[in-house]
Amino acid sequence: MSQSRGGPKGNFDLGKYIIVKVRKKNLYFEMIADPEEAWKAKQVINDLRKQKKDESEIELEEILHNSEITLSDIYPTFDIFTNVKKAIRSNEEDLIAAFETVEGRNVSANFLLVGEFSWTHEQRQKWIEKKKKQIITILSRNCINPQTKKPHPPKRIEKAMEEAKISINVDKTAEEQIETVLKMIAVVIPIRMETITMAIKIPALYAPKAYNTIDKLAQIKKSEWQTDGSWVGLVSLPAGLQMELLEKLNKLTHGKMQSKLINK
Fold it and tell me: Looking at the chain, which terminus has fewer C-beta neighbours within 10 angstroms, N or C?
């Protein structure tokens, strides 16, 4: 089937929209999207990726049935083009070859996952700052200065990132960029990702609430509830979170908890 001509259904001011591009199986496609709505949806997708416990990709159904993503708000039309500005629509054979469907909503969901968005400068800067803060938080919580055995303050990590001239990639999650950032700032400051193991005992009066606090900050390796209602456990956590955990538990138990560092 040959490519068809004709603009999107309805009258659209392209100045209000951005063009989203996808190259798949050596085929090229474009769609029109509202930049603000697309921006919101991409952040939802970014959060979904962070929640994944493995390397698996987000499924199309997770986009199509997500209550926080309304595809009709993002795309003023579900028409797919090979060239938006020339109003040349994609043919069905190419759509099936690339997406295995000609259904506009399904294709538009694919665009959200793999599309190249021409974000405005303001949007890119906003996203870069957000990811930068996420990276700094992760490093300050999970890394230590091997010379002092203490975590670096967030401001020190931010300064090191500036000195190392770190470029934040808006198309990758904060987690995906940690390894690269860590290697680069290690040239500027002494820093190392480190995990510790601790044994903890909580008196019965505070055990249930303390358990929830521990579960949020650490991985519980062993857990035992004693006959007197107290809790003892073995936990693993990033070295940078050790002081935060101990401070919270001491405050919660009024200093009546016990802890012992098993290894570093």
Answer: N
The half-sphere exposure of 109 on its side-chain side, counting CA atoms within 13 A, is 18
| Residues paired with residue 19 on neighbouring β-strands, in sequence order | 32
Q: Which residues pair with 88 in a beta bridge?
A: 5, 83
Note whether 220 and 197 are within 8 A (CB): no
The domains found in the chain, sorted by start residue, are 4-117 (3.30.1250.10), 121-192 (1.10.10.900), 194-263 (3.30.70.240)
What is the pTM assigned to this prediction? Answer: 0.54
| DSSP 8-state class, residue 58 | P
Which token pair is 20?
Answer: 């989203």
Q: What is the distance between the terminal CA atoms of the chain, rounded to a whole angstrom?
A: 65
For residue 110, give the H/E element and its range. helix 104-114
Q: What is the pLDDT of residues 106-116, one digit of tens each?
A: 999 999 998 98
